[in-house]
Request: fold
Amino acid sequence: MKLDKVFEIVSKIPKGKVMTYGQIAKILDTNPRLVGFALHRNKDIEKVPCHRVVKSDGHLATGYAHGGIEKQRDKLEQEGILFAGNRIDLQKSLFS
Reply:
């Protein structure tokens, strides 16, 4: 799996939408954990908005590498993503 392919997919997620690690992994025929490892190497969070990638159940991953889980949630809420407790409503926010 090439980092560029992960970055290319994530860069297409619009504001107000999210994708899951599993969705991206399926597109690339790889493991969701490898998608997470790739996103940890993201150096341009403006171009590759990795805060828009979440777990398949709508929870945020605890290891968000660019400021922690609270920073990720803040960014998503600023983009209009709604949370029910600690989970995103994927029916409303999922980008496919």
Q: What stands out?
A: The longest helix spans residues 69-78. The two ends are 20 Å apart (CA to CA). The longest strand covers residues 19-20.
